[in-house]
Design a protein that fits this description.
The structure holds 2 protein chains of 2 kinds. By secondary structure, chain A is an all-beta fold. Helix content of chain A is 0%, strand content 51%. Chain A contains no helices and 12 strands. In chain A, a hairpin with a 5-residue loop joins strand 5 and strand 6. Chain A is globular. Chain A starts with a strand and ends with a strand. Chain B is mostly beta strands. Helices cover 0% and strands 56% of the residues of chain B. In chain B, 35% of the residues are buried. The chains are: A mainly beta, B mainly beta. At the A-B interface, strand 5 and strand 6 of A face strand 4, strand 5, strand 9 and strand 10 of B.
């Protein structure tokens, strides 16, 4: 069965500092990997996704993530955090026409002025 | 207009009452999902539907039922609400390309007293 672990429940960074959110997955084959963001009072929005090819993927809002098969990881990064990035971030794993993604428990990001 | 809408956005009900949450989408997607979100537990899949005639249980379907009235509409019912069903409920859609990117509604906040 597929699973996702986000080791950090809550992260606080200063505005302008760099950010890395961790995601580890368990899946028997090459997975489809996703990062979603949930702003307060909103639904989830896709930040970026990895299916195949280049292991470094770019997303919206200046985010990127790197797929590392050897580490079963798909960490999300941003070089300079803005106050508007404060939100909850979810990593998810899926595989093609199985049609179901499994979500991690989420990481809440707080941005200090 | 939003692609995925949910009604109501907020609901307070009493133990034992029947309640229906509705989801509509204008994305033309075949696949629709219902999740619940609880603090610290991420998103858990309740039911999913790959087309009007295909409905499947997710990981936490007990106490819930669904109806796929049309391609664009997917309703979630709590036949006899209980307090531990207090949660934030999300509807989501995806296309059938196999890429599994999901598009979420804004959520329904349900309180069962």
């Amino acid at each position: 069965a597929q699973s996702v672990t986000q080791p950090d429940i809550h992260i606080t960074v200063s505005e302008g500092a760099s950010l890395e959110l961790r995601c580890n997955y368990s899946y028997g084959a090459t997975p489809y990997l996703f990062w979603y963001v949930q702003s307060p009072g909103q639904g989830l929005q896709l930040l970026l996704k990895y299916f195949s090819g280049d292991t470094l993927v770019q997303g919206i809002k200046g985010f990127e993530a790197e797929f590392k098969r050897s580490q079963s990881s798909f960490n999300l990064r941003k070089p300079s955090v803005h106050w508007s990035d404060a939100a909850e971030y979810f990593c998810a794993v899926g595989r093609g026409n199985a049609g179901k993604s499994t979500f991690g428990d989420g990481t809440t990001l707080t941005v200090k002025p | 207009d939003a692609d995925v809408t949910q009604t109501p956005r907020n609901r307070i009900t009493k133990t034992g009452k029947r309640i229906m949450l509705e989801c509509s989408q204008t994305k033309g997607h075949d696949r629709m999902y219902w999740y619940r979100q609880d603090p610290g537990l991420g998103l858990r899949l309740i039911y999913y539907s790959f087309d009007v005639k295909d409905i499947n249980k997710g990981e936490i379907s007990d106490g819930y039922s669904v109806s796929r009235q049309a391609q664009a509409k997917f309703s979630l019912s709590l036949e006899s609400a209980i307090p531990n069903q207090t949660a934030l409920y999300f509807c989501a859609t995806s296309d059938s390309s196999g890429q599994e990117t999901q598009y979420f509604g804004p959520g329904t906040r349900l309180l069962v007293l």
